[in-house]
Amino acid sequence: MSMPMPKANNGSAGPGRSSASAAPVLRVRDLSVTFRTEDGRISAVDNVDFEVADGEVLAVVGESGCGKSVTAMSLAGLLPRTATVEGSVQLDGVELIGAGKRTLRSIRGREIAYIFQEPMTSLNPVFTVGRQIGEVLGVHNGLSRAAARRRAVELLKLVGIPSAERRVDDYPHQLSGGMRQRVMIAMAVACDPKVLIADEPTTALDVTIQAGILDVLRELRERLGTSIVLITHDLGVVADLADRVAVMYAGRVVETAEVHDLFARPTHPYTAGLLGASPSAGRHAGTDRLNEIPGLVPVLAEQPDACTFADRCPRALDTCTTKQPLLTGDAHQVACWNPVREPVEAR
Amino acid sequence: MRRYLLGRLWQSAVTLLLATIVVFLGVRALPGDPALALAGEDRDPESLRAIREQYGLDDSLLVQFWQFVSHAVRGDLGTSIRTGESVTGMLRGALPVTLELSMLAIAVAGLVGVGAGVIAAVYRGRPAEWAANALALLGLSVPNFWLGLMAILYLSVAMGLFPASGFVPFFEDPIANLHHLVLPALILGTGLAAVIMRQTRSSMLDALSADYIRTAEAKGLPSSAVIGRHALRNSLIVVVTIVGLQLGALISGAVVTERIFALPGFGKLTVDAVFQRDYPVIQAVVLVTATAYIVINLLVDLLYSVIDPRIRVRGEA
Prior knowledge:
The complex is a heterodimer of chains A (347) and B (317).
Chain A: E1 26-37, E2 40-52, E3 57-61, H1 68-75, E4 83-91, E5 94-95, H2 101-107, E6 112-115, H3 119-122, H4 129-141, H5 145-158, H6 164-167, H7 177-189, E7 195-199, H8 207-224, E8 227-232, H9 235-241, E9 244-249, E10 252-258, H10 259-264, H11 269-276, E11 333-334
Parallel strand pairs in A: 3-8, 3-9, 6-7, 7-8
Antiparallel strand pairs in A: 1-2, 1-4, 4-5, 9-10, 10-11
Helix pairs in contact in A: 4-5, 4-7, 5-7, 7-8
Chain B: H1 2-29, H2 34-39, H3 45-54, H4 61-73, H5 87-122, H6 127-141, H7 144-158, H8 174-208, H9 211-218, H10 223-260, H11 266-275, H12 279-307, H13 309-316
C-alpha cells in the first residue's frame, strides 16, 4: 500500500451529509462485550462510544484482537450466544441492544448491512449470486423471484460487475475474489441501508483489486448517502476512504479524530506507534526498518483500572498503571495520561 | 455435463467388466465341484462327464467366461441347478421386493436421520441434542435382527398392528403391500438413520459456523431459511456421500431383514442359493449386486452435481 496520506475528501462528501451537530444515524454508548469461555469471562470490548453521522465514513482502526470486529458484529446482534453485550446501540433512534429477534431480523440487511472480510467464503457456494442478492429483496421488500433477479442485475451493474446480465446466474466459485466482494457489496446495499458495516473489506484481496473495491464504497457513499463503518487495520484504506477515525486498543477506543487531524497529529502513543509501524516511501530511509510496537494486544479477563497500553507504552507514567484514562477533548479526543504533543514526523 | 456423464458411464462399464471377471473366477474358486454337487449320490464317472459337458464345465476358463458373458448380456444368466427355473426369471421375481424394501428403508432413514441431525445441530448442548444422540447410539448398536424379532413379537404378535411375515405385490394391493413392508423398512432403515443423523449433525455444525451463514443472518433471513436453505443444502453433500457408502450395508441388512420377515426378495434368494450350492444363482446374485452397487455409485455422483454446482460446472468446462 502506498503512503497513508489522507485524500482531501472531506469537502466532497455525499449529498445526504449533515453537519456534526445533526442527530447521528448510529449512536453507540458504553458498549461492552464479554465472552463466556472455559477459562471464565473474557472482555473483548469495554465501554466503547462512537457516533456515525449521515453519509459519514467512520474508520475503526486497530491491531488484530483489539475488539474492532466484535464491536462491528455486536451492533446488529450477530455475535454467538457465548457473548454478552451491554450498553446502547441506537440506529436512527431505535435501540438494538436487547431488541427482539423479530426486530433485529427486520433491521438486518434493510437498515444495517454488512460486508465481511472473506469474499471467498462469505457467499453460499450452492446458490447463484443473483439468488443470494434476490433473497434480501425477497425477505425485506417482498419482491418476487423474477423482480428480485432484475433488481440484482441492476445492483451488480451498480457495483461495477461487467456483463451483469450473464454474471447474475453465476455461482460464487465462478467469480474472482474481487468480483465476489462486489457481489457482497451489491447484496449489502440492495435495500439501501442507512449504515453499511464493512469489516476488513479489502484485507483478503490483492492490492490491485483493493483500490477498485474502495472506489465502489466511495461511490456508494456519494450516490446513496450511506453511512459506512469501516473496520480495518490498514491505514492506507483509512486515508483513502474515511472522514473520521476511531483507534481501538484492547477493547477500548483510545483516540478519535478527523482523518487529517489524526494523521497529522497522532496524540495517543499507540496511534503514533501505529502510524510509525506503517510503511511509507522515504520516511524510514536510512533505517531500513519499520518502527514496531513491542509486545502483543493483551487478552483481558477483566478490564483493569489502568491504561491497557501501559505495558507497551514508551511514555508510560506511574498513573497509567493505576488509573484508567478516559476520552477527553472535543473534535479530537484521546484517552491518555501523557499524550504526544509534538508532531510525530519530527521524531 | 454430457462429457462428465460419458466419462462416468465409461468408468462404470470398466468396473462392471472387472466385477464380472471377479464373480466368474470367484465362483469357480469355491471349494467343491459343481458337477459332484449336481450328481448327488450318483458318482458314476460317466454321468459326471455328461454333466460337465452339459454345463460346459470341461471347456477352458476362457471359453466358459465367454459363454457366461455372451449369455449374460442377452439377459440369460443360466438355469438354477436346484429348481431348473431360469435364473433371470427368479431374479425378476425377487428384485422388485428388495428394491421396494430398500427404497422405503432409505426414505425412512433419510427423513428420520436428516431431521434428527438438523435438530441435534441446531439445539446443540440442549436436551434435544442429547435425545437425538442417544437415539442414534441405540440405532447403531442394537442389531437389526434383534430389533426385527422384538418388533414382530410386540407389534405383530402381541398387538397385531402389522403382519409378522409375508408379502403382497404392490400392483395387486398397494395398501396391503405397504402394510407388509412398513415394519421391515423401519427395521432396515434404523441403522442407516443413525448413520445419517450423526453425519447430518456434524456437517450441519460445520455449515452453521461457516461464513456464509453469518452472511445469511446479516441479511436478516428468518432462521428457517438460514438453517433449511443455506446450511442444510451444503450439509447434504456430505450426507449423500455417506448414504452412498452405506448402501452396501443396506444390501446385507436386507438379506437379514428379508429372512426375518420371510419376504421373497433378493436376500432370501441369496441365502437359499448359498445353502443349496446353486452356483448359477449365486453367480447371478453377486453379479446383480455388483451392478446395483455400480449404478448406485453413479447415481450418487450425479446427485452431487445436482446439489453442488461446483462439481456440475467443472464437468462442463
